Sequence to fold (101 residues):
Amino acid sequence: MKESYENMKLLLGKIKYHEFQWKVRGDLKVVALLLGMQLWYTKYCCLLCESDSRDKENHWVNKPWPVRTSLTPGKKNVVNRHLVLPEKIYLPPLHIKLGLI
Fold:
């Protein structure tokens, strides 16, 4: 199956996710899909914070970005209702993804 919002919704329905409420772990693309975020070039692409990916002037400036407080469809690149509660998602270990081990 192609990784898309509709296919994830169908898959979660078939395994009765909302009945069992399992914790979910996946790569960042899957997590973004489950949270209802758009996947193509976006302004607010971070699923954890509201960092502005198009701000080229301050791209390399360390700045404490505000943490995401809501996933409201139509705002900050959220296009669909989330399929999984954010607190039910485990993020992949960053040090393994970066090849530091």
Helices lie at 5-14, 17-20, 28-34, 94-97.
